[in-house]
């Protein structure tokens, strides 16, 4: 594991992540992936520590991934979901967090439908002078940093499994396709991928693009937003996919249809769904990612999703456990070993 | 524990269980029952392994039994229930299973309202060349093999606690009473009990019998269906109970009433409910089983259920943990020790 | 930990707790609080034992506290909540308890909306000659003994952190304010605090006082109910708070409003809500307790709740884990060490 010192206490956003921090996560995750390939997939690192999963928005996949990561570090876990919570009793979220703090939790993994909740909890913990760490497991349409990091780890590991590192993505072209507007996954990935020096191309219907981005677009295509981060925005799929090394599709919430942001799932699939024929625009060895769960035949064609030659979707899930072990380890032990 | 080699990778059905396999389960479970009688009821056998309980149909009893069995083998457990799942998000069941596979689960315990789901998952895992094992914890009206095995273990252990084995049931008469048509418990028990050489007598109202069976009936009673398996079907309780050694009652889903398959619970209890007076038809030391949860006063009279002289219901629950430890152990370690 | 012998097998009520028992809990909890201040907050005391949380009434806070206490004693835990239970299947509560008994649970922590359920389960377990212990985690409007004990521990620890003991409260004045009528927390606290020799003053609107108590009131104030227990009842806040050392506010269920027991939350806060100005009636170093979750601005003003100079609310939560570890330890090991 990296010998650099890890100073970050909470993981709330990738906006201010440094290259050194990205590399610390990537290298630590690589070590844990090795642990996961053993028959006994457990290390005693966080024994006696308590990781509380405070999920104010239900999620099986992410909660299970964090729970498993914590258990494999030998931490004890507590699960809180709003369905069985005292939220209905009128307590504030900060009160709930302070209750888990007072019980002696060491790390709080927080998911909430509202952007900023994990930040607010972290601020309050710091104000109180408490050592507890907060890990954002997805907040509204804001960020989902562990997803961004696992996507990064998945891509970098494909290029160099033994030493995944940020610089491997320099000059790669990566397309992010779909509902950019509502996607916290897209936000976190834009921060990490542009930080790596990769060219990031967003493709979405105008109704599913942030207004800020939409204004940058001229004739449906915009050039880099600033000198350092190479971000391009497209209203059509083809320019985003042309010669791309990696394509990330985003989950389409079916609620978008009822909000009149999309005419139909069929039309969306025709224009932005990833299929074999559209992949021909990309580099020959292009790989496709999706944060899951997938709407088969909408964001991606069903056969492509299951084709290990192209799909990294299962690898992402496996990476997720290794990356979350790395995050819990780095903030739990306070430093990389 | 048995020295024979265990080759079965998934446990989906008892239809093709061999006598050697039945005996391996019975003997392994007997060893674990001994462990459960100690103060520290835990063994390190599956340390570092992950058992995921994927319950697409809610069940407290069976889920807790599997969870406890896994914890007593020192495995880590993950619970998934459809109520808090991403099923509502449109993911397929195979996708969910593959997600848990990719997280690194070693054994998936699957319950689903539809018959065949555990088989479909197991087939897919094998097709992918994955080592993960699938254990059917009840699928629709198909099978519930761990229930069948725990019932078998309960009965055999009563005859010989130290060496429970299949041959002990040869020539015993066992009645299975109630809603045979909808019962996965009945299906699994019919396979195991007829395999033992016992005479199995089913008793149910015609509306709660499978059509296939109903056709075999002449004047409300049928003889053995084939030369080897001794299965008899009755429209009335008395011939099934006459000189029976064991009586298994099945849970009656109250939904059957609204489906017009039964006139009333009271009439059902009068005709097929097990009471002290009806037990006089059986052998004097007859024992009664029920998979639980019991509708008191419907399938069985309330006082009989609580009478340890007749009722094996609590013993079944205890057997359940030992048998599930045995199953997890046998498929988890790949061989009996 | 105390060297006295612990003989109580179930913890159902504080009505018959002896001073020796109170002191055993206080001293054992003090030992465990020391464990909780270590980095590795775990002891192997209950390894291999199973603690089942049977919560027929949902509660995140209390369930998490018991779960964490059990895990820190290295016990395995099983969670049962009625939402995902077979309660809908028509099983009785005793049947559910017996199922968990038969699975091999060593301690059952039971919460239920009806008073007396934990007692009924304990009686049945004793009748069956079973060694399993029952711990009442709140039953209807009856009792919540672990809350009463953690409040006692919180107060006594403030006076003498190293040797919290019952006699420290002799001649202290403690006010309990709010919905006494519906509060199981008040009931348990009245038993423990009056047992300590403290003067206990209840203050509530007449509609939220038990009828029995209301009859003792003359002109809105009553004197001690019997020679030994010093209990006083008031219809107004001021006489209860005058020179008080501790003020316990109770959670106000908002349902009380719809039941026409209260005119409005605002009026309730004005008359019985704890604020800085009302605290001036008390001793200068008065402390405020609340069992949580708090309706901010109703039972207590929001700024007071967050002021560590006055509020013990977070300390209560921390005490809760230590006290519940003590209870599980005392009934789990059968004796104090």
Description of the molecule:
The structure is a homotrimer of 337-residue chains. Chain A has 2 domains: 19-143 and 318-333, Aspartate/ornithine carbamoyltransferase (Rossmann fold), CATH 3.40.50; 145-316, Rossmann fold (3-Layer(aba) Sandwich). In chain A, 39% of the residues lie in helices and 14% in strands. Chain A has 13 helices and 9 strands. In chain A, the strands form 2 sheets. Chain A has a 5-stranded parallel β-sheet with strand order 7-6-5-8-9. The first copy, chain A, has a 4-stranded parallel β-sheet with strand order 2-1-3-4, with helices on both faces. In chain A, helix 1 (19-36) crosses helix 13 (313-333). The N and C termini of chain A lie close together (6 Å). The model of chain A has no long low-confidence stretch (mean pLDDT 90). Chains in contact: A-B, A-C, B-C. Chains A, B, C: It comes from Dulcicalothrix desertica PCC 7102. Chains A, B, C: Keywords: Pyrimidine biosynthesis, Transferase.
What is the compact description of this entry?
Three copies of one chain form a homotrimer. The first copy, chain A, is of the alpha/beta class and 337 residues long.
Largest protein interface, residues of each chain: A-B, 31 and 25 residues
Count every beta strand of chain A, where a strand is a DSSP E run of 2 or more residues. Answer: 9
CATH superfamily of the largest domain in chain A: Aspartate/ornithine carbamoyltransferase
Q: Tell me the Rg of chain A in angstroms.
A: 20 Å
Physical arrangement of strands within the biggest beta sheet of chain A: 7-6-5-8-9
**CATH topology grouping of the largest domain in chain A:** Rossmann fold
β-sheet strand percentage of chain A: 5-15%
Which runs of chain A of at least 5 residues are low in confidence (pLDDT < 50)?
none
Estimated structural class of chain A = alpha/beta
Q: What is the ordering of alpha helices and beta strands of chain A?
A: HEHEHEHEHEHEHEHEHHHEHH
Shape of chain A: globular
Number of domains in the coordinates of chain A?
2
Largest sheet of chain A, in brief, is: 5 strands, parallel
């Amino acid at each position: 594991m990296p010998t650099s010192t890890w100073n970050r206490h909470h993981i709330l956003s990738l906006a201010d992540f440094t290259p050194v921090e990205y590399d610390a996560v990537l290298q630590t995750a690589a070590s844990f992936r090795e642990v996961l390939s053993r028959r006994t997939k457990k290390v005693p690192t966080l024994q006696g520590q308590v990781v509380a999963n405070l999920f104010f928005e239900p999620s099986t996949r992410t909660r299970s991934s964090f729970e498993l990561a914590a258990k494999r570090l030998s931490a004890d876990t507590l699960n809180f979901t709003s369905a069985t919570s005292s939220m209905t009793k009128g307590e504030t979220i900060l009160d709930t967090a302070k209750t888990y703090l007072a019980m002696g939790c060491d790390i709080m993994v927080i998911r909430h439908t509202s952007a900023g909740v994990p930040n607010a909890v972290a601020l309050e913990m710091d104000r109180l002078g408490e050592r507890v760490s907060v890990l954002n497991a997805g907040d509204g349409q804001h960020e989902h940093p562990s997803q961004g990091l696992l996507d990064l780890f998945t891509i970098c590991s494909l290029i160099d499994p033994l030493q995944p590192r940020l610089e491997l993505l320099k000059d790669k072209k990566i397309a992010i396709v779909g509902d950019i507007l509502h996607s916290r996954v897209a936000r976190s990935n834009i921060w990490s991928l542009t930080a790596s020096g990769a060219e990031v191309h967003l493709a979405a219907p105008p109704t599913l693009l942030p207004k800020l981005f939409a204004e940058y677009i001229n004739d449906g295509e915009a050039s880099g937003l600033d000198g350092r981060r190479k971000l391009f925005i497209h209203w059509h799929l083809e320019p985003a996919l042309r010669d791309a090394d990696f394509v990330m599709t985003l989950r389409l919430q079916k609620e978008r249809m009822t909000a009149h942001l999309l005419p139909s799932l069929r039309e969306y699939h025709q224009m932005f769904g990833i299929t074999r024929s559209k992949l021909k625009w990309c580099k020959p060895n292009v790989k496709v990612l999706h944060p899951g769960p997938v709407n088969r035949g909408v964001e991606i064609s069903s056969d492509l999703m299951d084709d290990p030659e192209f799909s990294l979707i299962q690898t992402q899930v496996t990476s997720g456990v290794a990356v979350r072990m790395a995050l819990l380890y780095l903030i739990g032990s306070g430093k990389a070993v």
